[in-house]
Structures are given as structure tokens and as C-alpha cells.
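Subject — a protein and its fold
Fields — amino acid sequence, C-alpha cells
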Amino acid sequence: DVLQNALINSPGGSVFDQAIRPKDQGKTFVKKFQPIAHKLLWGLTGNHEARTEKVADINPLTFVCKDLCVPYFDQPVYTDINWRGHTFRVFSQHGTSGAGTPGGRVNSAMRPVGFTEFTNFYIMGHVNDVFANPNIRICRERIYEEKNGKKVLKEIRLVERLQYIIIAPSFETYHGTYAARAALTPFATGDVSCRLNADGSYEVTE
């Protein structure tokens, strides 16, 4: 979720817990992120923005992305990042899990692994938790050699490659919110960084 966007029918009294009114949240986000808009790859909507879409057929994130000139998506993004001759694959989803345990949340984040090819980073938000762990995938690697000016397949190797399962944490506060009043577990906050290296290696840091 990019915007808190709490409405009158949102959980608890959260409509009054917001530091910024819903109509001003998008403008505030644009102002803060305008200096680095060229670094934003896409905007992916979540259930918080969908609160307005459900009642008025308007998703406020579309206006934010338009103002920042950032591609907007209303479903998971599966993309390649090509850099210095290397391809890094990213599957990014908002997530739909209502699981109350860390294991259930990780299972939700891993669901796309079952229907996609090798992917470097699987990223999910939504559950206000944090998780970053490598998962080994056995892949076939084709080795070529030059013969008479042509690339010819020499051999196929089985290699172990890491793909990271990531749950991105939250930037929400806790005390004074409906979550604290309901004695829900405090949210994990901060960020997870996916690092791409010029030699084709990659890593994740929390």
C-alpha cells in the first residue's frame, strides 16, 4: 500500500488516526518522491487504495503514478531488469494473505514460485511483516563455445541458483492506532533492499 487511505468503513477508528487526510495523501507522496521519481520502476496498488475503488471506481494511486510519470499496475508485476549484460527477474505482488502466523505469510509470498520460471526476487507486501530468505532452485545452464565463427552448444550443466522470497515491511506507526487498541502484534517497519551487482551477482539486505 502506498497510501493509508482509511475511509469511514475501514477497520477500527483508523479514519481519524491518519496524520494526513485521504485527499491530501497523494499530493504529499508526490511531493516527497518527486526528486527520485526517475528511480521508481512502477506503482502497484493494494487493498488500501482499493477502498476508494470499491465505492467510487476511482483508484487514487493512478493519479499519483501519473503525476510522477511512473507505470501503474493493478495486478502483480513480473519483469526483467537488464543491466550490464545480466538479466534480473522480479515478481512483485501486493499480496492477499490474512494469515496470523509467519509461516502462513511466507507461504503466501512463495505461491508464485509454483507457476513461474526461475526468478531472482519474489516480493510481497500487505502483511506488515518482514522476511528475506534465499530459496535454492535447480536450473539448467547452457554452455556455448565458438566454432567456425558460430556459437555452438557445448554442454548443459545443472546449477544451483538462489531466488529470494521477500516480505516487505511497513512504514506505519503502531501506538495510538486500531492495531494497538486491538492488541495486535506490532508491525515490522523499515525496508528490504535488493542489490544488483555489475558482475551478475545479487543479494538482499534487511
